[in-house]
Amino acid sequence: MKKLLFAIPVVVAALIFAFCTKADVQTDLAQVVPDGPAADRGVCTLINNPVNAAATLTVCGTNLNLQQCQQCGPGNPKGTGVAVFPGGLINLTLNTPIEISITTDVKTALNLNAGNGGPGPIPLDAGECRRFRIEDNCTITPL
Fold this sequence. Notes:
This protein is α+β, with helices and mostly antiparallel strands and 143 residues long. The protein has 2 helices and 12 strands. The strands form 4 sheets. A 5-stranded antiparallel sheet has the order 5-2-7-11-12, with no helix packed on it. Strand 3 and strand 4 (78-80) form a beta hairpin. The longest helix is centred in the first third of the chain and has 17 residues, at 2-18. It is elongated and about 85 Å long. It starts with a helix and ends with a strand. Mean pLDDT is 82; it is low at 28-34.
């Protein structure tokens, strides 16, 4: 008899919760992620044909690992994801849109292309940093 008295409230609670209305999850996520869902983002492969094979290029803001880095540009925003390319030959697949910074250890020039052309040769002195935005259509824009 005690088991029956205990089971009745459990069954009633289960029925109440089974018919409760829930908020639409897609609506809530759209408010949290204003850039659109991940399915709407692009994927571009960033390459660089180095002018100076002795250059080591460091790319900040790749979002490919959890390593923190400091991007260049107004306000020096923090970035996540670092990739290092000895010899200056970059071959990196990125989810776009994205903003990245590239630094070098020796004087070189960047010949970037993400699949939709590039901004042309960009001279880069030792220790200098340049920031770029890559759009969904794989267009690179120097910032």
